[in-house]
Amino acid sequence: MCAVRGLTKTYPAARGRRGTPATPEIKANDAVELQVRRGEIFGLLGPNGAGKSTLVRQLTGLMRPDEGTVDILGHDIVRHPERAARILAYLGQESTALDDLTVSLAAETTGRLRGLDVTRAREERDAVLDELGLTPLAARPIRKLSGGQRRLACFAAALVGERPLLVLDEPTTGMDPVARRAVWAAVDRRRAERGTTVLLVTHNVIEAETVLDRVAVLDKGRVIACDTPAGLKEKVAGEVRVDLVWRERAPLEVPEVAALRSRADESGRRWTLRLAPEEARAVVATVTGGAAFVALDDFTLATPSLEDVYLALGGGAQQGLVKA
Ligand SMILES: Nc1ncnc2c1ncn2[C@@H]1O[C@H](COP(=O)(O)OP(=O)(O)OP(=O)(O)O)[C@@H](O)[C@H]1O
């Protein structure tokens, strides 16, 4: 469906103007390889600045790579970037030229631009607005909507005049749970009924875990892991996550607690530890008995989530985990 080989993109260095520092060149994508299968919901996960948006802008023909190839449904997108618009729908992070239109007209116009006749464009517009619960907002200009509503309206427009590949860059940012569910239901429905393939950029690992078939983790422009969520989780399967929430503060006067501190990620009253199962048992025994227990508000033990994988991989410290 979509094959990316050796994709490399470097943003050139910029000389600083008066008072502003110069910026060095940045290799935003470094020999990226990806294979997305038909009908798959494929995720691109990675920290800020990992190179996800740069990658999708090249896949969608909006930016030319320095090196490498992008093949989507047999089309060479690097040589023929204009073909991308015929085979994929792209929802970028930025607001679009549609912002000045009403929700209804944005959806209809997108359909018309994609070659639908007026009747068909209006039928699809009405169906998609209804599906996403946007009918009450149909007459409102997109520019005057809330952030989450605007995002949903742009998503709706992207769905009119169906394309076999949907490329969504952080589609649910700013959305409330009802809108998020509507988005994932719409994505799932298209995949089930029409075999639509979805490439999804996200930071939201918890959300991603439930919708993705496979995920590539990007860090500093390179793919450092690519597998199913379950496959990725196996890589940290030896670990258990222990969350300790203290009532007011950690009882550092208890030597066992003080000894744990260097291994904990601290966030307010919460300590998060990633431990081998037997260590986790020992920690639970310590904090649920004696002086530490008095200071403890809550604790949980959990098997690894995709978020743990993301954190384990995100630092780029475990590059040995790459799996093609
Ligand atoms: N137009 C640009 N000029 C110069 N550098 C850029 C440009 N766009 C992005 N970069 C740099 O390239 C790197 C990759 O950026 P990119 O936007 O692709 O990351 P991302 O993974 O999409 O991040 P985020 O999750 O924050 O959206 C970053 O270091 C960024 O600062």
TrEMBL record:
Q: Where in the cell is it found?
A: Cell membrane
Q: Which PANTHER family match?
A: ABC TRANSPORTER ATP-BINDING PROTEIN, DOXORUBICIN RESISTANCE ATP-BINDING PROTEIN DRRA
Task: Give GO cellular component annotations, separated by semicolons.
Answer: plasma membrane
Q: Which GO terms describe its molecular function?
A: ATP binding; ATP hydrolysis activity
Q: Which residues form the ABC transporter domain?
A: 2-245
State the organism of origin: Streptomyces ruber
Output the InterPro entries linked to this UniProt entry.
Answer: AAA+_ATPase (IPR003593), ABC_transporter-like_ATP-bd (IPR003439), ABC_transporter-like_CS (IPR017871), ABC_transporter_ATP-binding (IPR050763), P-loop_NTPase (IPR027417)
Q: For this UniProt entry, which residues form the secretion signal?
A: none
Membrane topology, from the record: Peripheral membrane protein
Q: What is its main location?
A: membrane
Keywords assigned = Antibiotic resistance, ATP-binding, Nucleotide-binding, Transport
One example of a Gene Ontology biological process annotation: response to antibiotic
UniProt name for this protein: ABC transporter ATP-binding protein
Query: Could you tell me the superkingdom of the organism this chain comes from?
Result: Bacteria
